[in-house]
Amino acid sequence: MNKSMSNLSSAKSFSATDSTNKSPTASTSGQALVKVSNLHKSYSPTIQVLKGLDLTMAAGERLVVIGPSGGGKSTLLRVMMGLEQIDSGSITFAGQPYITANDGKAKTKINLAVRQQIGMVFQHYTLFPHLTILQNLTLAPRKVRGESKASAEARGMALLTRFGLAAKAGAYPNQLSGGQKQRVAIARALMLDPKLMLFDEVTSALDPELVAEVEQVIMSLAEQGMPMMIVTHDMWFAKNIASRVVFCAGGVVVEEGPPDQIFNAPKHERTREFLDRVFHI
C-alpha cells in the first residue's frame, strides 16, 4: 500500500469537522433517511426515464444502484441532488419534505436547507480549473456558510492530508491525475459535512490503474459510517461496498436485496439476464 493509501486507511473521521457537530436531521430517530415515492421524470413525451420509481434508504446504509444504461440510475441521483425537475412524485429526507412536484407547474419544489446536507461526486470531477486544489475545497464553505478563510483552509488541508493530497494543495486540476482529481472532488463534497453522499459512476472515466485509489477513498468513508448512494457498473466494487443493492431497469426498481442475494441468487429474470451479460456467463 502506498503512502497516500495508508493515509486513507488510517483516517479516523469522514467529516471535515469534529464528530460532535451533529445535525438536527441526525438519523437516530429510526425513520428512513431517504424515501422516494412514485417518482416520474421525462425529458420529452417520448423519453420517460423514471416511471414511478419507489425506493427507501435507511440511515447508515450503503445503497448501490446497478442496472443497464438508460435505466434511470444517474437520473435518480441527479434528482436526489436537486439538479433535475420531476414530473410527479416526492422525496423526503430524514422525515422532512425535500423534493416534490409542483402540481404540474414548471418548477419542482426543493427544500434548499435539506439539499445542503447532501453531497454529490460526478463522473467527470467538475473541479474549477482556474482555482487551486485548496481553493476548490474552500469556495463553497466560504460562499455558502460564510466561513472564514482561515477556518476553511484549515479544514481543507486536514482533508487533503487525510486523502494523501496535502502536497497538491497549491496545484491546479490540470496538474493532477484522474484519480487525484476524483479524490479532490470527494474531499470538496465533504467540506460541507453532508449527511448523505451520492456517487455517480465516479471511476468510469479513470484508467484501470487509478480506479483502486478512488474506490479506497469511498471504502474508507463506508467503514466510518457515511450513508451513501452509489451508481456503478463495477460489480466487484458494488458487491464489496454495498449493504444493499438495488437493480433498476426501465425506470423502476426491479429487485433489491443484500449483495449476496442479488449477485448469487437473483429472484427476477431481468436481474439474472443483466448479471449474465455483465459477468459474461
What spatial order of strands do you see in the largest sheet? 7-8-9-3-10-11
Rg on CA atoms, Å? 19 Å
Q: What are the secondary-structure elements, in order, as H or E?
A: HEEEHEEEHEHHHEHEHEEHH
What's the helix count? 10
Largest sheet: 6 strands, mixed
> What is the residue-mean pLDDT, rounded to a whole number?
87
Percent helix range: 25-40%
Q: Oligomeric status of the shown chains?
A: single chain
Q: Please mark out the parts with pLDDT under 50 across 5 or more consecutive residues, or reply none.
A: 1-29
Q: Sum up the overall morphology in one term.
A: globular
**What class, by secondary structure content?**
alpha/beta
| Number of separate strands | 11
Distance between the termini: 33 Å
Strand residues, percent: 15-25%
In short:
This protein is of the alpha/beta class and about 280 residues long. It contains 10 helices and 11 strands. The chain is about 35% helix and about 25% strand.
